[in-house]
Write a structure and sequence with these properties.
By secondary structure, this protein is α/β, with parallel strands linked by helices. The protein has 15 helices and 15 strands. It has a four-stranded parallel beta sheet, with helices on both faces. The chain has a four-stranded antiparallel beta sheet with strand order 5-6-7-8. Strand 14 (about 455-460) and strand 15 (about 465-469) form a beta hairpin. Helix 10 (about 310-335) runs antiparallel to helix 13.
């Protein structure tokens, strides 16, 4: 498998530290609210990476944290008049519900920053002892220029970064508000403020800096060198750059061999923000669309490319997933009674070719868009041979479709009781669109399909009504 490594800016063959095993760390959300649709993209993308590596036989140690101490969490706790721990625990639970809805598997470990403070203090001590950090009135700063490779992930030149900070640094020093040795130095430990959570440390009561948390948790639960560190591209600088600096300075080893970053998510071609009124939580989107449709949509583009989130595109994703599920349902019906029978050589050969093409797509930097195209090819093959295939062939095609769908986290075979209402509504909506577009053949096909499932449609003045018969 080849992965585009942000560090080297090229595709590289994946070679794990330990053959047959893969240690992956993915930066998780800050839990002060329901996760938004932008948070969902890395969750889905890198869950799919994990699934594919496991499909190929790797033993995957997948670690994704919850940042449960942060300014935003503290702000919300003060607004509600409750302890910050109550806020973080509440939204960790809500995040897990959304992840389950999106069919994102629980991580091997979900560390929480507040439970790893002693190890963070130890790393800060190490950095101070090695001359990479210094203390000023209870604040511990990382001495950025002490790490010669600073900027190697973001490909930024440290002198260019300094020139960008020059005016700001001068203003701070004149006002006496900044006691850093260098404007590029960043915080490892910050002193407590009134009303904030704190922990005892050699430098006084305080809490860790955000960048420090991931360095410590990834080392504890995976090891000194990660195989893959992943997250959104907005984290490349400064978060991941700072992680590398403090980790390699403290540990004396390469922090991560491969870095993977997913592209930005836009809403109707605009950056998502509350001020623009286009800020949506996963929970809100799931009220309108099946969570599987959201997952299908997220995987329909390449993970490194920007992705535009729009109703029209979600409708297209819904139609695509429905097409696959309808084929799967038909194959299940046709494959009934195939136990013990063998597939024809022709079908077996075709399925092997499809599986090989699926693997080739996923091996090419996790190209889920092309992998989904292969699933559509399988559906096309099934439809073309629908009237002549034997039950064993139908069962074999369904097994392949189900297996490849599971690699992508897509549930292609759903029991009627679990999805029936949502599926009916989606098909009725598609039928309405087909009729408006004068595609009466498709409209009739949907009506017939629903009738086969025991669903009777009635066109009324108030719209289409349906009932089970």
């Amino acid at each position: 498998m080849k992965i585009f490594n942000t560090l080297t800016r090229r595709k590289e063959e994946f070679k794990p530290v330990t053959p047959g095993k893969a240690g992956i760390y993915v930066c998780g959300p800050t839990v002060y609210d329901f996760i938004h649709i932008g948070n969902a993209r890395p969750m889905i993308v890198f869950d799919t990476l994990r699934r594919y590596l496991e499909f190929r036989g790797y033993e995957v140690n997948y670690v994704s944290n919850f940042t449960d101490v942060d300014d935003k969490i503290i702000r919300r706790s003060l607004e509600e008049g409750v302890d910050s721990l109550e806020i973080s625990e509440r939204f960790i639970a809500e995040c897990k519900k959304d992840m389950e809805a999106l069919n994102v598997r629980p991580a091997t470990t979900h560390p929480q920053a507040t439970k790893e403070i002693p190890d963070m203090i130890e790393m800060v001590k190490t950095l101070i002892d090695k001359g990479h950090a210094y203390v000023v009135d209870g604040t511990v700063y990382f001495r950025t220029r002490s790490f010669p490779d600073y900027g190697k992930l973001s490909h930024k030149n440290i002198d260019d970064l300094e020139s960008g900070h020059r005016d700001e640094a001068h203003a701070l020093k004149v006002s006496g508000e900044d006691e850093k040795e260098d404007p590029l130095d960043f915080v490892l430990w910050k002193p407590m403020k009134e009303g904030e959570p704190f922990w005892e440390s050699p430098w006084g009561k305080g809490r860790p800096g955000w960048h420090l948390e991931c360095s410590v948790m990834s080392k504890k639960y995976i090891g000194g060198t990660l195989d893959i560190h992943a997250g959104g591209e907005d984290l490349i600088f400064p978060h991941h750059e700072n992680e590398i600096a403090q980790s390699e300075a403290a540990n004396g080893t390469t922090f991560s061999n491969y870095w993977m970053h997913n592209g930005f998510l836009k809403i109707d071609n605009e950056k998502m923000s509350k001020s623009l009124g286009n800020f949506f939580t996963v929970r809100e989107i799931c009220e309108k669309y099946d969570p599987q449709v959201i997952r299908f949509f997220m995987l329909s583009g390449h993970y490194r490319s920007p992705l535009n989130f729009a109703d029209t595109l979600l409708e297209a994703a819904n139609s695509g997933l429905t097409r696959i599920r309808n084929a799967a349902q038909d194959l299940r019906d046709r494959g009934a009674g195939a136990e013990g029978a063998e597939m024809s050589e022709e079908t077996e050969k075709a399925l092997q070719e499809f599986t090989d093409r699926f693997d080739a797509a996923m091996d090419d930097d996790l190209n889920t868009a092309d992998a989904i195209s292969v699933m559509f090819e399988i559906v096309k093959y099934a439809n073309q041979n629908r009237d002549t295939m034997e039950p064993a062939d139908a069962a074999g095609i369904l097994a392949a479709l189900t297996t490849l769908g599971d690699v992508l986290g897509l549930i292609v075979v759903v029991d009627d009781d679990e999805i029936l209402d949502d599926e009916i509504e989606a098909l009725i909506e598609e039928r309405n669109r087909a009729r408006k577009e004068k595609n009466f053949a498709r409209a009739d096909e949907i009506r017939s399909m629903l009738e086969q499932k025991g669903i009777l449609l009635k066109d009324t003045r108030e719209g289409v009504k349906w009932q089970r018969v």
